[in-house]
Please model this.
Amino acid sequence: MRELVPYVPGEQPRIANLVKLNTNENPYPPSPRVTAAIADAASKGLELYPDPESTILRETIADYHGIDPGQVFPGNGSDEVLAHSFFAFFQQDRPLLMPDVTYSFYRVYCQLYGIQAQLLAVDEALQIDVAGYRGRRAGGVVIANPNAPTGSALPLTAVEQLLQSQPDCVVLVDEAYVDFGAESAIPLVDRYPNLLVVQTLSKSRSLAGLRVGFAVGQRHLIEALERVKNSFNSYPLDRLAVAGAVAAYEDREHFEQTRQTVMRSRDELTVQMWRLGFDVLPSSANFVFARHPKQDAAALAARLREHGVLVRHFSQPRIAQYLRISVGTPVQCDALVNALRLLIPAD
Ligand SMILES: *Cc1c(COP(=O)(O)O)cnc(C)c1O
Model:
């Protein structure tokens, strides 16, 4: 326990009026139908345990993606689903392959469960090189698509290449940001028994506070996850979470409208940051990953905080000069750009 190095979530400040662009939350609230459904669920039946299988939610997600409810495994946020997946599939005598630049929680799960990780370097442009995963002795593969914290997405053909190059182990594709402009691998599930796709309602459906995520895969993988879950917590999803999550899927219009707005703001923010001299990676997510050739990233993050703007900095070697900035409302993006104008002298 003394050696375990836990994941450090982005700061959730208790100070009001900070422009919070550090944890990739959606800047827009969920659909009013979500809050109504939660209020309704809260008014009846809280004395009873919830459905341990979250059947209604499974059916709703399956219906949305055109798959079978038995191919869906919901959990208490995708972090929990990821943890169960690492436990179920990656504890092997062969290493788990993952990019050296990716969601830092993956390495924490490896340490927690004693999984050996092998980090494969992303290229100079911080892109995942799928060809490098071929022919390696592996007990599993995990990638985020779009990747975090870069925002870069792989096309489905590259994901398929990965699935084919490691057919004997589970390839986990974490699609936390997929709704902001990448292609989901869910349509590949029926053809690849080794594919497990994980998604969350925290980002594109504005429900980070509700804690709902899920995995999609063929029945044998979902069954394994069910065994792990039922050996850990029979009721990971409470009644309110299920009611809210189902309502979020039912309001397609709200989902479409908010995600389109976020994508538009992202593209505008990218242009603004170019004008300030930043290099900005092309993003398929609700954040941008950027560096300034003349500004130290950690110092800039600290100074932005003094100006009331929170962004995320990772001190990991290859990305230590980058900032990850969540896409906010137009007002929040303007606040960021104005603060940057004060901090960065014009050439
Ligand atoms: C935000 C995020 C998650 C966690 O999502 P929750 O469902 O809120 O636990 C998982 N993976 C990546 C890459 C993320 O950015």
